[in-house]
Amino acid sequence: MGRLLAVLAPLAGALLFTPASWADDWLPHTKDATWTYSWSDSDYSPTPTKEKVTVKESKRDTFTLEWTSDGLDNPPDAATTAGTVSFQETSSGVVNTNWTSNPPPPDFPILCAQVTQCGNSLASAWFNVIWGTRTPTLAEPLLQGASWSSTGGYQNDVASSSDYLGTEQVTVPAFAHPVQAARIRADVSQAGAIGDPYGSGIRDVWWVYGVGPVKLRFRHGGGHAPVTTAVLVSTSLTPQQPPPDVDYFPLTAGLKGRFQWTNAHLKKPEVQSFKVVQAANGSARLTVSSVSGPIHTQGAYFYTLRTDGLSNLAGTTKAASLVKLPPLGPRTLPESKRRHFYTVFDLMEFGFNPVLPPYPETGATWSSRARTRDFDVYGVVGTSRVVGIQRVHVPAGTYSALVVRSTLKQAGYPWGSGVRTSWFAPGKGLVKLVFQHGDGTVSQVVRLK
To answer: How many CB atoms lie within 10 A of CB 32?
Structure first.
């Protein structure tokens, strides 16, 4: 019985989506975009302060917002504020890269360990948005169950853990009718600052697609437990319907299951179990092992969910097979570097990244492309398409599943060519797969539990 080893090198997906990607719609930054917020603090700035926000500059994936309280008929006892916040759009979401402002009012808590040269402030609407959540300020794609950790503050002395709580209708002065908003709750903590109770607490921010933040509530820590609130008063932007937030491949630590794989090349069904053993900030490692069947295998796979979709990053598999399966290409690689179908996940991810687009919608398509790492590794040309939602029954249950169909061609290798249809259930992941190989055989995978 021979022992085989397949090593999956890191993959860099190259793709085009139809419809177009969801680039900057959670925080638009066209040159003519404007927002006006009204914010107040129950203890330190009870008189609401209006701030007008404009786009100071924008270049490719980076942009800077600028605000001022001047010229807005604020009351004399309102705070006087001016400043900027800079951002970069990354594959993991919107990241705050810099900020500037005038000093906070003298009676505000000191959010540093020393009074002098303190670069921290919560005296503005946008400072409350980025506090403790600079990298990222908003994680993307924003799907059900999303959670992430972040840091912030002048010396990265503020930490937070954020959770996406779903969408809800909110009413703010900027719009005549309630709008649908994504609610993000952050548990923020600061230690070592003179006013660190004020720098800690629970903050909720409501984000509207096509607009940005429209509402904020920060319940600070400490005995007095002051509350900061902010609402959007007016904007030049129009609210949009947010993209679907269903998670069809959850990267949740502890998630586990079992599959059965049948094919004419297998003398009896191959049964494999998997478990997500580590997960953080949209990336995860899962392990796979044989339960029964002719392929005695163990493996580990690494997946990440970013704005370019769900992709396989790397992995390793070891197998001591009792059957000889057809070979896979491409010819440009030595046999020791070529892929093998040892596990259910090998069948699912074979060809090109991503496995799924970031926000799957019926009709979305993406293709393999030449001169990419995926093509060098697989040598596969083809296209994937989201077919839609179908009711599917497998031993693990009955689901309304997202159907993705891929056509694959690996030159000279029928086993690596054909049509693959995959069914993904919300909060569950892969539940069924049918791969009609070019050699005439059919691999069928069903979720057992």
So the answer is: 8
Q: How many Å apart are CA 130 and CA 99, to the nearest integer? A: 10
Tokens read off for 369: 């492309």
User: Hey, what domains does the chain have and what are their CATH numbers?
Assistant: 4-19+246-447 (2.40.360), 34-235 (2.40.360)
Per-residue pLDDT of 416-433, as tens digits, reads 999 999 999 999 999 999
Within the chain, what is the greatest distance between any pair of CA atoms? 85
Q: Where are the beta strands (DSSP E) in 209-354?
A: 212-220, 227-235, 256-262, 270-280, 283-292, 295-306, 309-321
CA dist 245 and 26 (Å) reads 13
Helices in 299-392 by DSSP H: which ranges? 344-349, 373-378
Q: Which of 56-65, 317-326, 432-441 has the lowest mean pLDDT?
A: 317-326
Closest alpha carbon to 360 in 148, 144, 184, 90:
144
Distance CA 198, CA 351 (A): 51
Which pLDDT score, from 0 to 100, does residue 6 have? Answer: 36
For residue range 91-108, what is the model confidence (pLDDT) as tens digits? 999 999 999 999 999 999
Inter-residue contact 336 to 384 (CB < 8 Å): no
Alpha carbons 303 and 281: distance in angstroms, whole number: 11
* Whole-number Å distance between alpha carbons of 207 and 183: 6
